[in-house]
Amino acid sequence: MKIAVYPGSFDPITNGHLDILKRASSLFDLVYIAVARNLQKQPIFTTKERLALIRGCTSEFENVKMDSFDGLVVEYARQVGAEVIIRGLRALSDFDYEFQMALMNRHLDENINTVFLMPHEDYTYLSSSMVRDLAKFGAEIGSFVPANVKTALLKKFRE
Ligand code: COA
Protein backbone atom coordinates (compact mmCIF):
# COMPACT_ATOMS: atom_id res chain seq x y z
CA MET A 1 0.00 0.00 0.00
CA LYS A 2 1.48 3.35 -1.06
CA ILE A 3 0.95 5.97 1.63
CA ALA A 4 1.74 9.68 1.30
CA VAL A 5 1.73 12.60 3.72
CA TYR A 6 0.71 16.08 2.58
CA PRO A 7 2.00 18.38 5.36
CA GLY A 8 1.49 22.11 5.73
CA SER A 9 0.19 24.90 7.86
CA PHE A 10 -3.21 25.05 6.09
CA ASP A 11 -4.12 28.36 7.73
CA PRO A 12 -6.60 28.00 6.12
CA ILE A 13 -6.87 25.29 3.46
CA THR A 14 -7.48 26.81 0.01
CA ASN A 15 -8.66 25.55 -3.38
CA GLY A 16 -4.97 25.32 -4.34
CA HIS A 17 -4.31 22.85 -1.52
CA LEU A 18 -7.45 20.90 -2.50
CA ASP A 19 -6.20 20.73 -6.07
CA ILE A 20 -2.92 19.16 -4.88
CA LEU A 21 -4.80 16.81 -2.53
CA LYS A 22 -7.01 15.61 -5.38
CA ARG A 23 -3.98 14.87 -7.55
CA ALA A 24 -2.25 13.09 -4.65
CA SER A 25 -5.31 11.01 -3.83
CA SER A 26 -5.43 9.72 -7.40
CA LEU A 27 -1.77 8.65 -7.22
CA PHE A 28 -1.57 7.04 -3.77
CA ASP A 29 -3.65 4.48 -1.90
CA LEU A 30 -3.86 6.64 1.20
CA VAL A 31 -2.99 10.30 1.79
CA TYR A 32 -2.66 11.91 5.21
CA ILE A 33 -3.24 15.66 5.07
CA ALA A 34 -1.29 16.71 8.14
CA VAL A 35 -1.47 20.09 9.88
CA ALA A 36 1.85 21.14 11.41
CA ARG A 37 1.17 22.20 14.99
CA ASN A 38 4.35 24.00 16.01
CA LEU A 39 5.15 26.49 13.32
CA GLN A 40 7.24 29.66 13.38
CA LYS A 41 4.15 31.30 11.92
CA GLN A 42 1.38 32.67 14.13
CA PRO A 43 -1.71 30.99 12.69
CA ILE A 44 -5.07 32.73 12.82
CA PHE A 45 -6.91 29.41 13.13
CA THR A 46 -6.10 26.95 15.92
CA THR A 47 -5.03 23.44 14.95
CA LYS A 48 -8.49 22.20 15.88
CA GLU A 49 -10.13 24.85 13.69
CA ARG A 50 -7.80 24.12 10.77
CA LEU A 51 -8.63 20.41 11.01
CA ALA A 52 -12.35 21.15 11.18
CA LEU A 53 -12.07 23.30 8.06
CA ILE A 54 -10.22 20.50 6.27
CA ARG A 55 -12.84 17.98 7.39
CA GLY A 56 -15.57 20.25 6.03
CA CYS A 57 -14.23 20.24 2.49
CA THR A 58 -12.56 16.87 1.96
CA SER A 59 -15.39 14.38 2.50
CA GLU A 60 -15.42 13.51 -1.22
CA PHE A 61 -11.96 11.88 -0.88
CA GLU A 62 -12.35 8.30 0.31
CA ASN A 63 -8.63 7.64 0.70
CA VAL A 64 -7.72 10.85 2.56
CA LYS A 65 -7.30 11.05 6.34
CA MET A 66 -6.59 14.22 8.26
CA ASP A 67 -4.26 14.57 11.18
CA SER A 68 -1.89 16.98 12.93
CA PHE A 69 1.71 16.54 13.97
CA ASP A 70 4.48 18.05 16.07
CA GLY A 71 8.16 17.81 15.31
CA LEU A 72 9.77 16.52 12.16
CA VAL A 73 7.64 15.60 9.19
CA VAL A 74 9.83 12.56 8.40
CA GLU A 75 9.17 11.18 11.89
CA TYR A 76 5.47 11.65 11.38
CA ALA A 77 5.70 10.00 7.95
CA ARG A 78 7.47 6.99 9.50
CA GLN A 79 4.82 6.76 12.21
CA VAL A 80 2.00 6.47 9.68
CA GLY A 81 3.97 4.21 7.32
CA ALA A 82 4.32 6.80 4.53
CA GLU A 83 7.16 6.65 2.01
CA VAL A 84 6.27 9.89 0.31
CA ILE A 85 5.90 13.54 1.31
CA ILE A 86 3.74 15.56 -1.06
CA ARG A 87 4.52 19.22 -1.66
CA GLY A 88 2.95 21.63 -4.11
CA LEU A 89 5.14 23.69 -6.41
CA ARG A 90 3.33 26.81 -7.49
CA ALA A 91 6.08 28.87 -9.08
CA LEU A 92 9.83 29.10 -9.40
CA SER A 93 9.89 31.15 -6.20
CA ASP A 94 8.84 28.03 -4.23
CA PHE A 95 11.77 26.05 -5.58
CA ASP A 96 14.67 27.11 -3.32
CA TYR A 97 12.80 26.53 -0.09
CA GLU A 98 11.25 23.28 -1.28
CA PHE A 99 14.55 22.01 -2.66
CA GLN A 100 16.29 22.61 0.68
CA MET A 101 13.49 21.03 2.64
CA ALA A 102 13.30 17.97 0.35
CA LEU A 103 17.06 17.39 0.57
CA MET A 104 17.09 17.83 4.35
CA ASN A 105 14.20 15.44 4.72
CA ARG A 106 15.99 12.92 2.51
CA HIS A 107 19.13 13.36 4.58
CA LEU A 108 17.04 12.58 7.67
CA ASP A 109 15.48 9.52 6.07
CA GLU A 110 16.74 8.16 2.76
CA ASN A 111 13.62 6.00 2.41
CA ILE A 112 11.19 8.89 2.35
CA ASN A 113 10.97 10.78 -0.93
CA THR A 114 9.34 14.12 -1.64
CA VAL A 115 7.01 14.20 -4.62
CA PHE A 116 6.18 17.63 -6.06
CA LEU A 117 2.85 18.26 -7.72
CA MET A 118 1.84 21.38 -9.59
CA PRO A 119 -1.57 22.87 -8.91
CA HIS A 120 -3.85 24.04 -11.70
CA GLU A 121 -2.50 27.30 -13.15
CA ASP A 122 -5.46 29.20 -11.69
CA TYR A 123 -3.96 28.62 -8.26
CA THR A 124 -0.28 29.29 -8.87
CA TYR A 125 -0.43 32.75 -7.29
CA LEU A 126 -2.63 31.72 -4.37
CA SER A 127 -1.51 31.48 -0.75
CA SER A 128 -3.25 31.30 2.61
CA SER A 129 -1.89 34.68 3.71
CA MET A 130 -3.22 36.34 0.56
CA VAL A 131 -6.64 34.86 1.18
CA ARG A 132 -6.48 36.02 4.81
CA ASP A 133 -5.62 39.55 3.66
CA LEU A 134 -8.41 39.62 1.10
CA ALA A 135 -10.93 38.43 3.70
CA LYS A 136 -9.68 40.94 6.25
CA PHE A 137 -10.27 43.83 3.89
CA GLY A 138 -13.61 42.58 2.63
CA ALA A 139 -12.58 41.43 -0.88
CA GLU A 140 -14.34 38.49 -2.56
CA ILE A 141 -12.61 35.15 -1.82
CA GLY A 142 -15.24 32.72 -3.11
CA SER A 143 -13.14 31.51 -6.04
CA PHE A 144 -10.08 30.80 -3.86
CA VAL A 145 -11.46 28.83 -0.93
CA PRO A 146 -14.23 26.29 -0.29
CA ALA A 147 -17.51 27.67 1.08
CA ASN A 148 -16.92 26.51 4.67
CA VAL A 149 -13.54 28.29 4.74
CA LYS A 150 -15.04 31.48 3.34
CA THR A 151 -17.67 31.45 6.09
CA ALA A 152 -15.04 30.81 8.79
CA LEU A 153 -12.78 33.61 7.52
CA LEU A 154 -15.60 36.12 7.38
CA LYS A 155 -16.62 35.14 10.92
CA LYS A 156 -13.02 35.35 12.18
CA PHE A 157 -12.59 38.88 10.88
CA ARG A 158 -15.97 40.03 12.20
CA GLU A 159 -14.99 38.94 15.73
N1 COA B 1 -2.29 26.40 -2.90
C1 COA B 1 -2.35 27.52 -2.16
N2 COA B 1 -1.39 27.88 -1.30
C2 COA B 1 -0.33 27.09 -1.21
C3 COA B 1 -0.19 25.91 -1.94
C4 COA B 1 -1.23 25.58 -2.83
N3 COA B 1 -1.19 24.50 -3.61
N4 COA B 1 0.97 25.34 -1.64
C5 COA B 1 1.55 26.11 -0.72
N5 COA B 1 0.76 27.17 -0.46
C6 COA B 1 1.03 28.30 0.42
C7 COA B 1 0.45 28.09 1.78
O1 COA B 1 -0.87 28.57 1.82
C8 COA B 1 1.39 28.93 2.61
O2 COA B 1 0.98 30.27 2.53
P1 COA B 1 1.25 31.32 3.69
O3 COA B 1 2.72 31.31 3.94
O4 COA B 1 0.76 32.54 3.05
O5 COA B 1 0.44 30.88 4.87
C9 COA B 1 2.73 28.77 1.89
O6 COA B 1 2.41 28.38 0.60
C10 COA B 1 3.62 27.71 2.44
O7 COA B 1 2.82 26.86 3.14
P2 COA B 1 2.85 25.34 3.46
O8 COA B 1 2.81 24.48 2.26
O9 COA B 1 1.76 25.13 4.44
O10 COA B 1 4.23 25.16 4.04
P3 COA B 1 4.76 25.77 5.33
O11 COA B 1 6.05 26.37 4.93
O12 COA B 1 3.81 26.62 6.04
O13 COA B 1 4.92 24.44 6.20
C11 COA B 1 5.91 22.34 6.71
C12 COA B 1 5.88 23.55 5.84
C13 COA B 1 4.93 22.34 7.85
C14 COA B 1 5.59 21.17 5.84
C15 COA B 1 7.35 22.27 7.22
O14 COA B 1 7.66 23.45 7.91
C16 COA B 1 7.58 21.09 8.11
O15 COA B 1 7.64 19.98 7.64
N6 COA B 1 7.71 21.36 9.42
C17 COA B 1 8.00 20.33 10.40
C18 COA B 1 9.49 20.37 10.79
C19 COA B 1 10.28 19.70 9.72
O16 COA B 1 10.24 18.51 9.56
N7 COA B 1 10.98 20.50 8.92
C20 COA B 1 11.65 19.99 7.75
C21 COA B 1 13.04 19.56 8.04
S1 COA B 1 14.10 20.83 7.59
Instruction: Predict the CATH topology.
Output: Rossmann fold
Count all strands and give the number: 5
Provide the low-confidence segments as ranges: none
Radius of gyration using CA atoms only: 15 Å
The total count of helices amounts to 6
* CA-CA gap between termini: 45 Å
Helix proportion range: 40-55%
CATH homology superfamily? HUPs
Question: Could you characterize what this model shows?
Answer:
- This protein is an alpha/beta fold and 159 residues long.
- The chain has a single domain, classed as Rossmann fold, CATH 3.40.50.620.
- The protein contains six helices and five strands; from the N terminus they run βαβαβαβαβαα.
- A five-stranded parallel β-sheet has the order 3-2-1-4-5.
- The radius of gyration is 15 Å and the shape is globular.
- The mean pLDDT is 95.
- The structure holds coenzyme A (COA).
- Coenzyme A binds at residues 7-9, 11, 14, 16-17, 20, 36, 72-73, 88, 90, 101, 104-105, 119, 123, 126-129.
